[in-house]
Structure formats: C-alpha cells, structure tokens
Amino acid sequence: MFVLVSVLGGVLVAGLAVPAAGIGAELAKSSANALGAIPKEIETPPPAEGSTVYMADGAVLTNFFDQNRAYVPLSEISPWMKQAQLAVEDQRFYEHGALDLRGTLRALVRTSSGNTQGGSTLSQQYVKLALIDKALSDNDEAALAAAYERTFARKLLELRYAIALEEKLSKDDILERYLNLSYYGAGAYGVEAAAKRYFGTTAKELTLAQSAMLAGLVRNPSTSDPISFEKIALERRNNVLDVLWSQRNTTEVWHFTSPITKAQFDEAKATGFDRALVTETPHGCYASEFQNLCTVVETILLQMPSLGPDHESRRKALYRGGLTIHTEIDPRTQRAAQEAVSNYVHPTDPAIGLMVMIQPGTGLILGLAQSRPNIGNNPGETFLNYAMEREIGKTNGFFGGSTYKMFTLAAAINKGYPTNRSYDAPRSKDWSGETFLNCEGPYKVPSGGKGWTVTNAGGAGDFDMYSGTRRSVNNFFVALEQDVGVCDTVRMAETLGLKLQGKTVEEAANYPSFTLGAAESSPVSLANAYATLAARGMRCDPILLKSVVNKQGKEFEVPSANCQQVIAPEVADRINDVMRGPFNGGTAARSRIPGYDIAGKTGTDGKNTKAIWLVGYTPQLAGAAMIGIDATHPQFEGRNYDSLQLQGLRIRDGKYRLSGSSGSEAGVGIWLPAMRVALEGMEKGRFNDPTKVEQPNVDVPSCSGMGLNACRDTLRAAGFGTSISRVENSRAEGTFLGIRPSGRAPQYSTIRLLVSSGPKPTPTPKPDPTPTPAAAKPPAKPGGDEA
C-alpha cells in the first residue's frame, strides 16, 4: 500500500506540473493547456437563477426558471448552514488548499482499484457542479457526460481547475458559490430556495436542525428530500448532527459558530419535520393566475433582441439569468375583463369572447382577457391568444365589421371634409360598376353575377357624418369611402394603429367593402387604433413590459411604445365628437356609463355574422369587446366557413342562443361590465370640443349639358360630395334638372343633384257635400202594385 500511495502521489504531482506527461491519452484530451486556464463559468457566479415577473401592483405574475434558485451572499446564509455543510463535505476547507492530500490520495487509491469514491475538496466539488451547470445551460450532452465521469483523469482535471480557482477566489467566495449552486432536492437549487421549499423561511434564518437536514441532502438529493423521503432525510440530518457533535472539541474547524452544545444537539435531534411549512414556488405560465396573458408576456420576452441574438440565448436569459421583470398589467382591470368575458362566453363554447383595454397616450395594455384563459390541450384550453398579433398570439385575427367605419370617417375629416357632408343613402343599393380609388388609381366594382349590393340596417334617407355614424348607415359610409378613396381609408387605419392580418394596405384597398369591416385584424390593434383617437391623435404601440433588470443592475431594452402624433389633435377632436353618437342615442346607447364621456362604435361583419364588436373609449381608457366564431370548434367539423354564423349559435354550455347583436351582446354582455369596473377611480375626463372650421368658398364646376352621372363624377373630382334631392317638376320623373348650390360653395361641402320626381299630380276633385234630392216616386199602377 505504501508503494502504491507513493506511485500515485508521484503521478499526481507530475499531472499537476506537466499536464500531458505521464497521464496518458485520456488526460491529454481532457486537461487544460495551462494550470491557470480556468473556464470563465467556474470563476463567475452561476447563471442559473430564475426570473420573476411582477404586475403593476407588485404582485407576482409568475416565475420562470429551469432551476429554482435565488442567489444570496454568504452573509445572508445562516452560520449553522455554513458550518453544517463544511462538517460533512470538507471540515478542513479553510486549512488546506485546493488539494487535501490525505482525502485525495485515499480516493485515488480506491478509484484505481475500481471502487470509485469521493474525497474531493469543496473547491473540487464546486468545479464539478459548475461544469455540470454549464453543460446543462448549453444543452451540451457530451460536456454533461464528461462532467459526470468518475475517472482518474477527470479527478485530476477538476483538481487542476480547483487549484486555479483558489488562486483567483477567496475561500468565502467559493463556499458562497457552492451553497448557491448545490441541489437540495424537490426542485430546490441553492440554500435560499431550499430554505423556502422545505421550511418556509430564508437561508439566513435556518435553524441548526434545518441546516443539518439540508447539509445531509447534498450527496443524494433526489432520494432523500424530506417531502418524499422523510425518514431518510431525518436519518441523514441526525448523521450530520452526529458529525458536528464529534467535531465539538476540534476548535479549528468552527469558523461560523461556537461549537455545538449538548442542549443544542439534543434539541435539534428531537425536532421533527413540519410539513405545514413546505411551500411551492409557482413557476411558468401554468402557475399564473392569468395563464394566457402570461404566455403573451413570455413570448414578448423571448422576442426581445436585448436578451440575446436568438431564441435559445433569450430563453437562457429568461430561465437562468435571474431577471426582475416589471409589467404594466393592472390585476384589478385584468380581473374585471376576465370576469366579464368568462361570465358571457364559456371556454368550451363554439365562439371566442375577448376584452382588450388600453391606456390612451401610453399604449399600456391594462386588460387582455379571453374566454379560454387557461393554457393546455384539453377542451376549453388553448395556447393561442386570440387578441394579439399573429407573431405573438398565433391566430389570424377577426373581421372588424362596422368598427372600420371610423377609419373612413377619420380619413374624410383628416382630408378636410366637413362633418355636415351628407349623402343620400337608400336602404339598399347595388354598387356594381361604381368607381372607387385604390392605391393605384380609379377602378370599377365588377358588374354581373351577384354584384355588390349593400343594405342598411339603420334606415334610409339623407345622412351626414353625425347621423350616419350614430345609426351606422352602411350606404352612407360606402358613399363617403368612394369620395375619400379606399386606399386613403386603409392607410388611415394603419396610421391610427390597425394591424391587418394576411393583407397589405395595397391589397386591402382593392375592396370597397373595407369600410364595412371586410378585412381581418388583431383585436388589440383595433382597440389601440381607437385609443389613438382618445389620445387626440397620439399613437402608441401596445406594450406590456415596463422594465427588465438582471442581478447586476443591467437594464435590458424592452419594446417601446414609440408614441408619436399621427393626426392633428384638432382632427381627432372632430372625429371624437362624431364618434360620441353611437353612445348617445345610437347603436351603443345601452352601454352608456353615467358620468363618463364615451365615444366608440359597434360592429357586425355582415349577414352571416362571424364577429360582433363594441369598441368604446373615454379620454382615459379604450376597450374593445368581441364575440367571434371559432371555426376550429369540433361542432363545425366539415362545415364550410362561409356558412358559419353567430346568429342562433348556442353559448354558455348551450344555455343561451346568440342573436348576433353587437350592442346587446358584445356591448352590454362584455364591454359594459368590464369597463364599468375598470373606470372606477379614474378621472371622468371629457373630450375636447371640436374647433369650428370655416371652409373656404370655391368654384363649383358647371354641369351644364351633363347627365346625372357625369355631373356627379365632375363634382366628386372637385372634392364635393353629392346627394340626390327629388323635386316636383313638369319634366318626366328621373330627369336631371341641375345642381344646388351652383357658382361657389364651401370646399368639400355637399352639392345637391336635383332630379325630377315628375309633375305635381292633378288633384282628384272632391265630392260635392250637398246631398242629392231623392227622386220622386212614379204614380202607382192601378191596383196599387209598384212597377
């Protein structure tokens, strides 16, 4: 044995001094090139620390981690914990260098005999833990396998690193990192997480009994944690206490406390494991109160370039970087939105319910709720978010219905059209063959086939912007869009913040039905477009994150709201004044909230309704509520999408049949209860009164010698609106008579096209009220009989 130890000692010294000499090929492959060539991850604090996401009120939304760890300095760790760990792992840690010759030679002798054994110093154990942690972080299977090797060459390599480590770090630094890196079972990495997991306390407050139990878990944490293996954990704790007791007279090993006393020893051994103190550290979005919203936050974080150049590096930063993440989520508003949606549409219904709330002027998403709030693959669960953009929510959006009429209105007012510009809007009109403006110029709506017939739901007659908006008159808005241009309408939608899904601006501008909502967009962007009006033309990108900071205080750039003035405040004021109409006697009147100045628009997207909306806003808050068809629901399997409709669809587990009414269902059902709660405590601000605009008088083109259509086109080309007025005239019905006014008129005003309704009908003679005398009876015939 003496000879063997001498030989191994010589080999050990040679291996330390000359890395590749006398150790063989295995050592040559794994050794560092120089004694000081220590991997960076070994000499720096371990990166694997979880991140915490906070809501606006300081409550935790969730934690993200691969390893549940909270790094704490040595000064924040109980003296008993430090002493107990050293007692069982390396009692002479502060007396020897990286190499404890007696323990190392003993381990090498047994390893050379095929009986692998520990004996490494605490510094060597830390090196091993750090290399394992790095391999896990890099998902490097080869490095992980090498780190777990228990060969002669591997022990020498770890020893070399340990020697280099002790040249760079103090003993206290190494002990601190060891205690923070070690795994203590049940998902707890490091003493801080372990203290909370098993005892509901902090590392600083650990008692002697608790410290001894944790110290006894390190060697086999997966098979000895007290939650699953209480008896084994108590036995190992007692073993640690026995070691401490045996060392009571070896004063040189007591660095953090006075030697253990008999009373302390007996009390600790008599202490049981209190399961009432066990705590869970919720993590991931499954553990969040707002699961689906949490996934949106996670997705945004994983797309942030400041956290890394690719998905894997960003995930590592989030799950292992110890980030403190603050969001602007208001839990009170979020709960109000979720409660309103969940009360009206249930998770397993064949429809989707949504509520989005955004703060005007900041872009902050204050509420983001959907009828399937929980993530998963079970019925009523989903990993999709139906409100966000496709790159975040992974959905295609919804048709906006009449909520898009606002964009036509905004484009017209921004162009200078007066709000009293009016059009004759018949109940039903075929627009086939009519000319509209896309982004390339004029184009005609195709004729033939079914054509394009638009029907009003809000009556017929002559409407201006106020009355047309209040009653949501389809043919009024198509006529307005025809003059404004479809391209300018779509561009205004984009300017205000609408994000179209699956279409470019140029593609959407090919469809004059855009003003009626015939394009899909994300609900959050539709709510945000209305929030731009509430902020008097200040558009901000929707945001959830406030800040991201790591343990070292480094701040990471979060997505900016990028607020900018996109339309003049005075223009927004005029739009807002018109948009009050639906809440004041119009289609959204039932959703009024007393004391608040509210504007907005209802929306239904057609005969076979796929979505119904109410988007309403005050100067302080914009909210969009929607109920949309879920074409992927098993109930619709094999059905053609065009045939699906909300009308008649049963929701709330079949207890309610939808009528397709945006005002009563999306509005009263979801928007009203959510906004009523969210607005509590907010300032009851009012929209700015619109400034009076004096339109300059300009020349009215002459229509002399023109027919009705030619005259209308000429006037429209000059920027005037046109409306047909039927007047009695001696000329035949339908004859174009001229225009009013002529000569000069306010710019962009409406010119009346006078059309004969025919001559005044000849009055029917009234009957003479004088009674006609009764005719005399003829003389009676002889015999007294009447003829």
Structure write-up:
The chain is of the alpha+beta class. 36% of the residues lie in helices and 14% in strands. It has a five-stranded mixed beta sheet. Strands 5-4-20-19-18 form a five-stranded antiparallel beta sheet, with helices on both faces. It has a three-stranded mixed beta sheet with strand order 24-27-25. Strand 4 and strand 5 form a beta hairpin. Helix 6 runs antiparallel to helix 7, helix 11 packs across helix 12 and helix 21 packs across helix 23. The relative contact order is 0.08. The N terminus and C terminus are likely disordered.
Primary descriptors:
single chain, 787 residues, alpha+beta, five-stranded mixed β-sheet, five-stranded antiparallel β-sheet, 26 helices, 36% helix, 14% strand, elongated, disordered N terminus, disordered C terminus
| Number of beta strands | 27
Beginning-to-end CA distance, first to last residue: 164 Å
The coarse silhouette is: elongated
- Helix fraction by DSSP (H/I, runs of at least 4): 25-40%
Radius of gyration: 40 Å
Protein structure class? alpha+beta
Low-confidence stretches: 1-35, 774-787
Largest sheet: 5 strands, mixed
Strand content: 5-15%
Average pLDDT number:
88
Enumerate how many helices there are, as a single number: 26
Strand order of the largest sheet: 2-1-3-15-16
